[in-house]
Amino acid sequence: MAQLVVTDMEGNTRTVEAETGISLMEIIRDNDFDDMAALCGGCCSCATCHIYVDEAWASKLGSVDDDEDELLSMAESRQENSRLSCQIEMTDELDGMPVTIAPGE
Ligand code: FES
Prior knowledge:
alpha+beta, 23% strand, globular, binds FE2/S2 (inorganic) cluster
């Protein structure tokens, strides 16, 4: 099974099993990272699943669509490598990707 390397807001890093075909948000939430609120459940309407993706992996991800971009634009903690984890599907190509949970707003 693929793996995801997740760093929480305190800087603690854990490598977790990552089922393909589901979102990064679901993987992070289901592995008991309390920092991931994911309040809308993946409907792209809350931005509480905000993560930073390691820059070296950015080219493996799909582009940010308009809805995701609009939500991220309201986040004070947005960076160049910001994404909403509910909008990224885990694939074998993303095996080993490091992500960091962004600070809440
Ligand atoms: S869980 Fe709400 S936007 Fe991702």
